[in-house]
Write a structure and sequence with these properties.
mainly beta; seven-stranded mixed beta sheet; four-stranded antiparallel beta sheet; globular
């Protein structure tokens, strides 16, 4: 039974930082592509960042230079370091996973998804 549990969300002022974590219960975690998506009220869910099993990363243009995705295979964990936060970063952030290569920015293509953690920037 695969579970993805996000944590680390909260409220922060513009310009501040947050670090999201996603704890993943899955066999052979290192072979998975992992990613973060977000959804703001009234908007479509959008891709934020992905990290492939080989460590290669992709970022949405809106977060490049401010967010960093990383993973710790020994801890079955995924992280998203978010710096210089803006009001437009306010959203529910979701952790996603798929075994093998990443499949782009359509969240529905990812096999596993967490319940989300709320980030509010004011």
């Amino acid at each position: 039974h695969v579970q993805l549990v996000e944590s680390g969300g909260g409220s922060v002022q513009a310009g501040g930082s947050l670090r999201l974590s996603c704890q993943v219960s899955v066999w052979k975690y290192s072979s998975y592509c992992m990613g973060w998506f977000r959804q703001a009220p009234g908007k479509e869910r959008e891709g934020v960042a992905t990290i492939d099993s080989d460590g290669s990363t992709t970022y949405a243009n809106s977060v490049k230079g401010r967010f960093t995705i990383s993973k710790d295979n020994a801890k079955n964990s995924l992280y998203l370091q978010m710096n210089s936060l803006k009001a437009e970063d306010t959203a529910m952030y979701y952790c996603v996973a798929i075994r093998g290569v990443c499949v782009g920015d359509d969240w529905r293509k990812y096999t596993y998804r967490g319940q989300g953690t709320q980030v509010t920037v004011s």
